[in-house]
Write a structure and sequence with these properties.
Blueprint lengths: L6 H19 L8 H22 L1 H10 L1 H14 L10 H8 L10
């Protein structure tokens, strides 16, 4: 009844990864534009499915696993080195400064 040898399996895996990433680390993108988030998701789907189609499922999952290395480096090493909690993004003032965002979110434009 259920088969995992279709592209829908890859789509579901990448959807779960994007969902968990958004749930766990979405607060790091709180001030990013909606269009950037949408583009990032669509680009991830296109890249992952293209790799799966042209090079095979195994290579696609290896690439997905390799994408975790920069995430672990940034959240586990680089942010704590700058005094920012890699899990919560606090203190927000330091994180906003790191991202180049304006710290005053209530100012009038």
């Amino acid at each position: 009844m259920f088969h995992t040898n279709t592209l829908w399996f890859e789509i579901s895996v990448i959807s779960i990864v994007l969902l968990l990433g958004h749930i766990c680390f979405g607060h790091f993108e709180e001030r990013s534009s909606m269009w950037r988030k949408v583009f990032k998701a669509i680009a991830t789907y296109i890249i992952f499915i293209s790799i799966s189609m042209y090079f095979g499922r195994e290579i696609a999952f290896i690439v997905l696993g390799l994408w975790l290395i920069p995430i672990l480096y940034i959240h586990g090493y680089m942010l704590p080195k700058k005094g920012i909690n890699g899990w919560t993004g606090e203190p927000k003032a330091k994180y906003y400064e790191f991202r180049g965002w304006d710290k005053d979110i209530f100012k009038e434009k």
